[in-house]
Amino acid sequence: MMTIPFGDLRRQNAAIRTEIDEAINRVLDSGWFILGKEVAAFEQEFAAFCGAAHCVGVASGFDALYLALASLDIGPGDEVITVANACMYEAAAILQTGAMPVFADVDSATQNMNPTALEAVITSRTKAILPVHLFGRLAPMLEINQIAQRHGIPVIEDAAQAHGAWRLDESGARRKAGAWGNMACFSFYPSKNLGALGDGGAVVTNDAELAERLRRLRMYGWSSKYCTAETSGRNSRLDEIQAAILRVKLRHLEAGNRARRERAAWYAAALADLPVMPPVDEEGHIYHLYVVKLDQRDAVRAHLASAGIGCDVHYPMPTHLQPAYQSLKVEPGALPVTERLAGCILSLPLWPELTHDEVTQVANALQAAVF
Fold first, then answer.
1. Which of 118, 163, 304, 320 would you label with 36, given CA atoms 20 to 30 Å apart?
2. Same domain assignment for residues 158 and 257
3. For residues 115-137, b (16+ Cβ closer than 10 Å) or e, as one string?
4. pTM for this prediction
5. Buried-exposed string 242-272: b where 16+ CB fall within 10 A, e elsewhere
6. How many domains does the chain have?
């Protein structure tokens, strides 16, 4: 039994249980469960939240990635540049289109795509760039977009861990995840900052033509029910109950992100004198995960587990070293920063309802583990 679990969705949902129950009952009373008023309303509300013109709800974050790639007609013979430290989702989606993933190394401090490494792997076959906003921090989108524009390559944001994260744009204004690339893909897996009570995902975009193409692709390629399909699609629809729940949770997202930043500050203060490197803080980082770097990670993790502290590793094996991806022929050592980080990162408990006493307990257990 964990004294402090890595995450506790029961606490989060208990605080808004009445609102969730009302949303579910509203759908049950409507008798409409697929692509109805709740999905349409959530799509409008989430697009506005992101600062984008369009949102297309789909069945999962993975489907969001695949459909975004498919909407650009990416397929065999094409390459898509992404990173190898985000647990295979991007590579799997790219391969499903028939294209090949190409990996750029990451920055050691932020663990996000390194723009210099990105530009070094662009070829004539590169048809998209897929940066990941890892752990709740936006990738360096100004630099990535500049590179993409020079080469005429579209950008698809993987924003599955970045609901509400932001950076300053060229004018000095805040621009959220979802409003930087040609498209952005979100997951609403229950543990995300904006999580459903099941699977769900979305693609947001400012491009009306892409949005319409995505709507067709998510439902067999139809332009309307049973209509002639001009392209092959799939069945990938966000359902009404999940959309209604997400509408409730969207109202609480900014407060939840502020609570995450507050708890990150508690950790930073508590860990200041330990041989542990906390994540670099910056405005707009919404701490989907609190990931530290330390020596002897596995021994420390075992000690924390014995003390009843839940922790995890995001992620222990880079994609290019996974057995399933050996056909890509990316040799060990090709991504030195990615590979080094995989051996020293540890995710500590961080969620909006975590108390100050619990953060102190985690820090004390970590102190006992590293000294």
1. 163
2. no
3. bebbbeebeeebbbbbbbbbbbb
4. 0.97
5. bbbbbbbbbebbeebbebbbebbebbeebbe
6. 2
